[in-house]
Amino acid sequence: MNINVNSLPVTVRPALHALAILVLSLSGCSTMAPYDKSVMQVPVNFKESKLWSAAQVQADQVPDEWWLLFKDPALDQLQIELAQGNQNLKNSVAQYQAARAALGISQASLAPTLGGNASVGRGTSGGNSNTVANTYSVGVSASWELDVWGRLSAGVQVSQAKLQASLDDLAAARLSLQATLVQTYFSLRVLDAQSVLLERAVQAYQRSLELTQNRYDAGVASSADVAQAQSQLKSTQAQLIEVRSSRTLLEHALAVLLGKAPASFSLPPTASLPMPPDVPVQLPATLIERRPDIAASERRVAAAYAQIGVAHASYFPALTLTGSAGYRGVDLGDLISAPNLFWSLGPALALTMFDGGARQATEDSAMAVADQAVATYRQTVLTALQEVEDNLVIAASLLEEDAVQVESLRAAQKAQDVVTNQYKAGTVSYLNVVATQTTTLAVERSLLDVRNRRLQAITQLIKNLAGRWDKVQE
After folding, report:
1. Residues facing 139 on adjacent strands
2. Residue 45 pairs with which residues in a beta bridge?
3. Is residue 472 included in any domain, yes or no?
4. Is 255 a domain residue?
5. b or e along 270-281 (b: 16 or more beta carbons within 10 Å of the residue's beta carbon)?
6. Which of 231, 378, 403, 409 makes the best surface tag, with the fewest CB within 10 Å?
7. For the stretch 184-219, what's the b/e string if a residue is b when 16 or more beta carbons lie within 10 angstroms of its beta carbon?
8. 265: phi then psi, degrees, rounded to nearest 5
9. What is the pLDDT of residues 261-288, one digit of tens each?
10. Long-range contacts of the stretch 390-393 (C-beta < 8 A, 24+)
11. Number of folded domains in the chain?
């Protein structure tokens, strides 16, 4: 709003001139020190990247919808439903909206406030007069605290940093929920595969029991052989029941992640597992700078330092410009007229002279909170580095373990075939058959477990790198 000083009454101009001199003399006296973004020294590349063969194919760029790398349509659909229905995600959105409203409140403190009033009263006019009359009044008032010490702008910086931290918290919560969904889904699919494996084993053991029973009836096998075959069959059936029960519990967990009641959700079983994507040969450690939890922690450091500025500014006086204008008179019909005009305008300084050390304690507290925020930020970075290094080791070792388990399974299956033929020929006891069958089943289940853990590790690695591992743009 532009004000023409020459159009104001002559008596107002000296007050405005004095105010202008005061404001100019105090401008540039902000108590805020510039905030330097916290920096953590990180290595150029992750230490455990060397575990990956140089001949490995470079992985494709991980998209924002990083789960698409697993090429599983059912998983893609679940992620869509997660974004729409998860209640924890909605809670994080509401927290961000509250932080945005808090920023609006702090920004409003930089603007002047304007109010209006109207009143009517009845009484004597004062002095020795006994005249009783009505008095009418209408006017406006305004006040504006000038931010010469930077206290208000520091408060805005606090709210801005907290808003960005809240936005980063939302991104971190979304990423965590996405990864939890992927890992739960993979665990469920592994149980589907184990169910198929155990069902096949139950059928095979049922045939073995029939074979042993026939050999017993023919007098070429002992009752111990029959008992061993029955025990093996029942034990495998019990394992199948346990796997199916665990699968049901994971399906319930998926339903809650999607914001649905378990009774209203079901996922058709399938025995196929997605292939994990290749991990790049080299991963720059600076990738963790994009992690939303690290960004949120850094913004809380910025907010803490801005709060120190707010506390320090309390040592200086608050300069407020106040003004009011209106009309006051006894005749309502002639109220809006020059003789009834009244106005006031002037600055006011308010300073607390003694507070028993409260301001110093407030500033000390703000500095301690800032130190705590810095330590938390640095620990967050260190933890992030450890998480990536750990999962690089786990994913690499599980890749090797998968190959060894495949060779072990081939050997176990070959041994089982040989021993089964020997038993049919009557050269070995059924105990040998049970041992080889048990070994083969255990190796098959171990192989599924390794592949599940490998999927989990790569999923966790992608999460540790903020959902993608493409190179940082310079």
Report:
1. 117, 326
2. 284
3. no
4. yes
5. eeebbebbebbb
6. 403
7. bbbbbbbbbbbbbbbbebbebbeebbebbeebbeee
8. -130, 140
9. 999 999 999 878 888 887 766 676 767 7
10. 391/457, 391/458, 391/460, 391/461, 391/464, 392/46, 392/48, 392/49, 392/51, 392/52, 392/279, 392/283, 392/461, 393/48, 393/51
11. 1
Q: Is the pLDDT of residue 172 over 80?
A: yes
- What is the reported pLDDT for 26? 47
In the structure, what pLDDT confidence band is assigned to residue 143 with cuts at 50, 70 and 90? confident
Give the Å distances, CA to CA, from 221 to 18, 194, 226, 421.
116, 32, 8, 15
Tens digit of each residue's pLDDT (9 = 90 or more) over 403-449: 999 999 999 999 999 998 988 888 888 888 888 988 999 999 999 99
Contact at 8 Å (CB) between 250 and 184? yes
Q: How far, in Å, CA of 277 to CA of 404, rounded?
A: 20
CATH number of the domain bearing residue 336: 1.20.1600.10
User: Containing domain of residue 29, as a range?
Assistant: 5-122+133-464
pLDDT (0 to 100) of residue 104: 82
What value does the mean pLDDT take over residues 79-101? 87
Q: Is 336 left (phi over 0), alpha (psi -120 to 50) or beta?
A: beta
- Name the token pair of 247: 């699968």
427 or 13, which is more confident? 427
Ordered alpha helix ranges (H), 109-150: none
Region 38-55: what's the mean pLDDT?
Answer: 56
Alpha helix positions (H), 258-343:
292-313
Residue 396 domain-assigned (yes or no): yes
